[in-house]
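Please produce the structure of this protein holding BIS(adenosine)-5'-pentaphosphate.
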Amino acid sequence: MSKKIIIFFGPPGSGKGTQAGMLARITDWKKISTGDLFRAEILAGTKIGKVADKYTKVGKLVPDKITLNLVEKSLKQKALGFIFDGFPRNRQQLKDLLVIFKKALKKNDQIYAIEVAVSDKEVKQRLSQRRMCACGKVYHLVYNPPINGGVCDICGAKLFIRNDDKPKVIAHRLKLYHDESKYMLGYWQKQNKLIKIGGEQSIKKIHEEIMEKLKGLKLI
Ligand code: AP5
Ligand code: MG
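Below is the modeled complex.
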């Protein structure tokens, strides 16, 4: 059976993590979220975490070498597919990933990128009301609220606000996204591997649209 690689690409707060998680639960493909990997390292207080913290809290990208290292480790898992959330997000990361794929993938394995398009205005609205759990579950106080106030539906832990969800940091993350998005989207478009999704619909509707498009391409 061929391997499937799905890459979620979109601005901060576009719903990449939300949709990547939903797709992973249905397909059993492994989700590789570089943001989640860094947050786990930060929480565990590792050497990588200490470096990552300096960059993430101001909305800068963690150096490519460190990021690539984490991705390579995650790619060693046995799986029929991988779902990338937040990687690759610049030219160097794309170049590095293509080198890895060239070595690791077979001819009939398939790679597609999904663009989740959302306006800057919507990004700011969403991130101001996002709440997170240390287990990785993401909530929105209005669109995707937890059942019991400030605790996680899944593990019961207290929810928190991400330390990069501050207006100034969000503005910087958005700038970085806009600096690279034209090139990155252009690359997947040229390869005829770009699936475009309007991200300003309900979470459920977006999920259904993604499933429909993946089925149409016989990826699931
Ligand atoms: P990362 O964690 O990847 O952050 P990001 O790209 O800025 O994206 P977010 O996680 O903020 O948003 P999302 O698109 O996942 O949206 P979500 O589903 O949560 O990266 C964080 C940092 O780590 C980076 O700044 C960098 O420092 C570092 N890093 C990560 N990857 C790196 C890399 N490759 N290289 C170097 N450094 C890297 O949804 C957002 C909110 O909206 C939630 O509240 C959700 O419930 C809600 N929501 C979702 N969908 C909808 C919808 N359709 N309608 C209404 N609300 C919705
Ligand atoms: Mg995310």
